[in-house]
Design a protein that fits this description.
The structure holds two protein chains of two kinds. By secondary structure, chain A is α/β, with parallel strands linked by helices. Helix content of chain A is about 40%, strand content about 20%. Chain A has five helices and seven strands, in the order αββαβαβαβββα. In chain A, helix 2 crosses helix 5. The N terminus of chain A is likely disordered. The longest helix of chain B is centred in the first third of the chain and has 18 residues. Chain B is globular, with a radius of gyration of 17 Å. The chains are: A alpha/beta, B alpha+beta. Strand 5 of chain A pairs parallel with strand 9 of chain B, so a sheet runs across the interface.
Chain lengths: ~160, ~200
């Protein structure tokens, strides 16, 4: 009975949780993006994506699995480029992230895409995933859809080398 | 052994640079079927005319966002003798929306002022090193690429800071040098037809 009561209380508290992505922060300046990572993360994985990009949408469950495979030493953060389209709605991106059950932080980029490309030194093709260390030094990057197991193995190797 | 490694590295570097044709490179010519009327259209690089080759497609929302802008530019510069070629390199065997029939429907519905060409096998896109849709290459009368990259730096007219294609077109039609010759093309990755097949 006590177990049941505890379960009911847990269910209530889960139901009261806010939507996972409801606090999707809007970012206009590319330099602000780095602040999305938690300070304890030793390896920082930045993923640029958009709902209008088919491979980005397809790789989202893989990103969730990659996120699940690591503790706080590896942090993933997404940068939504949905706002590149005229008439884009931030709420649609929130809905998408919720549907995908994405728990890692995302930001909604509303600045000039070319400024972002210059800041991150990428050629405009998404998805792109860039991996940094805690000091912001780039370790490696991957353009195109990630492969789940391959990426997990590579991140484990990255962590191992940092020890 | 060290020398061999160096040669391999240099070769790889050359291949990487050659991937996306840049300003100053010779533009490859092509003959492709126009979805609108089924006729073959030939782009001859050294035909003495300014030409815009834009890789685009039916399904990419970012490419579609630039569609009205490209049509506006084609209408404006078509009167100045600039030829436009819209090339669709996407694999219709994976994405039915990119079929010739659907291309024809889109071109007709939107009333494209340029041929909408089927790049079966994605061969022309590979030859240009196009990566995304939309991806633009401006070719001069001698067949030299004078600008490549985005149409504009933003799909939102109010937020445009640089209009890459029209700046380059203005310069060349007025006999000036193009100031910004290469920009970063954003868009949807090309849905490549596997090498050696036609994708239909």
């Amino acid at each position: 009975m006590r177990k049941c009561a505890r379960f009911a209380a847990l269910s209530l508290s889960l139901a009261a949780l806010p939507l996972l992505a409801a606090d999707l922060r809007t970012v206009k300046e590319p330099a602000q993006i780095a602040s999305v990572f938690p300070p304890e993360a030793r390896v920082r994985v930045l993923n640029l994506w958009a709902m209008w990009c088919l491979p980005c949408v397809v790789e989202m469950p893989d990103l969730r699995a990659i996120d699940d495979a690591f503790g706080p030493e590896v942090a993933i953060a997404g940068v939504s480029l949905d706002d590149m389209l005229p008439n884009a709605k931030r709420e649609k991106t929130i809905e998408f992230l919720d549907r995908q059950k994405i728990a890692f932080p995302n930001v909604y980029f509303t600045g000039n895409p070319d400024d972002l490309g210059e800041h991150l030194k990428f050629d405009g093709e998404i998805p792109i995933t860039i991996v940094y260390d805690r000091d912001g030094k780039e370790l490696w990057r991957h353009t195109g859809r990630l492969k789940r197991d391959e990426t997990i193995a590579r991140l484990r190797e990255t962590l191992r080398r940092m020890k | 052994m060290k020398k061999l490694g160096m040669v391999v590295l240099l070769l790889l570097a050359t291949l990487a640079i050659a991937d996306e044709l840049g300003s100053g490179a010779k533009a490859p010519g092509f003959s492709l079927v126009n979805a609108t009327d089924g006729e073959t259209v030939t782009m001859k690089p050294d035909d003495g005319k300014l030409k815009v080759v834009v890789f685009t497609c039916n399904q990419c929302p970012y490419a579609k966002a630039f569609e009205p802008r490209l049509m506006e530019i084609a209408n404006r510069y078509g009167h100045k003798g600039v030829h436009f070629y819209a090339v669709n390199p996407n694999d219709e065997s994976q994405f039915a929306e990119e079929s010739l029939a659907n291309m024809k429907a889109r071109a007709t519905e939107q009333d494209y002022p340029f041929p909408y060409l089927k790049d079966a096998g994605s061969k022309v896109a590979r030859a240009y090193g196009a990566r995304v849709t939309p991806h633009v290459f401006l070719v001069d009368g001698d067949g030299t690429i004078r600008y490549r990259g985005y149409v504009d730096d933003s799909a939102k007219p109010a937020e445009r800071k640089t209009t890459g294609l029209t700046n380059a077109l203005n310069a060349l039609t007025e006999g000036r040098e193009v100031a910004l010759t290469e920009t970063r093309a954003f868009g949807c990755a090309i849905k490549w037809v596997p090498s050696g097949t036609t994708g239909s």
